[in-house]
Fold:
Amino acid sequence: MVEAIVRPAGPYMLSLSARHAGDATRTFRDGIFTATLEVDGGLERAFARQFPDGRLHVVAGSEDGLERLRFCLAVDDDHSEFLRRFRGDALLGRSTSHLAGLRPMRLATVAHALLRAFCGQLITSREARQIERRIVRAATPALDHFHAPPSGEALGALSAAELRRPGLHARRGAALVRLCRTLDLERLRNVPSADVAARLLRERGLGPWSLGVVSLEGLGRWDHGLVGDLGLVKLLGALSGRRVEGRETEELLAPYGEWAGLASVYLLAGWARGLVPVPAAQAA
Structure:
C-alpha cells in the first residue's frame, strides 16, 4: 500500500463533501472514505480520513491509485476564489460562509459520470442511484464489497436490453452504449470545456443538466451548471413565487459565470440547510 499525508489546497471538509458520495464503488462511513479503484487492469482499495487539523491521510494500492483518489476527493483544486467572489452574493453569501469546506466529489471515470447523467434524467435521485448501482454491479468486477468504477469499454459491452433490465430507459440505454462504443470518454479530460459541451450536446438524450453532471463529477470542472436540476427548479420557484420550467434555471446560474457548476452545488446544499433566503410563504 502507498500512503501520504495531504494538506488540501484551500478550505476542505471531507465529512461535508463526501456525505452523499456513496455508490456501488465507494462509501463514506464513520469518517472514513473507502473506494475500489481499477488501476492497470487490477483492482485496489483506497481510503481517506481527515485529521482535526485539516490534513488528510490517503491510502491506495499504488502511486497511480493515490493520484486517482486525490482527484476523486478534489483535494488539490482550491475554490477560495469562488468563496471570496460570492461571499456578498444575495443567494450564495451565507452558504459560502457556512459550507466553505464543501467541494463536489468526483467519480473515478468519465464513463461513470455519463452513466449517472443518463440514470438521473426525469426521476428522483434515489431511484436514479438504485438503477446506477444495479448497472455498475452488472458491468464491473468487485473487490470485497465494492465494484470497480465502470469504464467506457465495460458499459459499451452491454446491450440496450441489458441496461433496460436494471431500469434504464431504452433510448437512454441505447445512447449510452453508442457513446461508450464510439467515443474515448476518458480523453475528454484533455479537451477544452467548450469543445466537450459541443460534442456531448450533439447527442440525442443529453442536455445541459447531463453536461453539468459529466463536467462536475467526471471531468472535475466547475464551469457548467446543473441547468434543469429539479432542486434548482424548486428553488427558483420559491424565489419567484411561480411555477418555472427547467430551462429557466440557466438564468439563475448565469451570474456565476465560470463558477456555475460549483454555484449549483452550493445553492442546492445551502437551500437544503435554510441558508438561501427565500420569501417565507414560498419556502413553506
